[in-house]
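Pair request: fold both.
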Amino acid sequence: MSEQSIKITQQDILEFIKKKSSVASPCNVCGASDWVLQDLHGIATTDKSGQVQLENLAGYAVVTCQSCGNSRFFSMRTIVAKLSSSA
């Protein structure tokens, strides 16, 4: 089976999370709106059937409130699958 490499950037991930979640809204702990995506590195690959394979990539994207440390976790497998299907 042939594999296709898809480069997913931190900006792609953050934009996806902002569209699909309440990250754009204030923190439910402290009320601040200062969210940051933690560093991620890696490449996602999919085969012809669309099966997502993650290589050297965290299992979760973590978005953290810079005011209080509250963190939200998002499945990288789901994000990569959604981003690769729209590519």
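--- second member of the pair ---
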Amino acid sequence: MSDAFQEDLCKELEAEALKQQAVDRATLAQADKALASLNRELDTAKQLLRECADDLACYIEHEYAATHEYPSQKRRYERDMELPRQAYKFLGIEDDGK
């Protein structure tokens, strides 16, 4: 191979590598934007889940306020409170959202 050919080949390879780096940087930037958007959506969904769980727990507390000490009502109360408890557990909140 001639020196000129090798030099041209090296320049072409360098140019291709630079193009690939630019594409990689652009791809990473797009991925970062998408991840940031997904994190914002997840935060919103968590806020909505918390609000729903709080509302449901409040409703259940009110529904069983006078009767949840009776054994049969206590079982129903515990069963109905399972959904808000699962939501709180998913959100990493202890003590049923309190």
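Observation on the second member. The mean pLDDT is 89.
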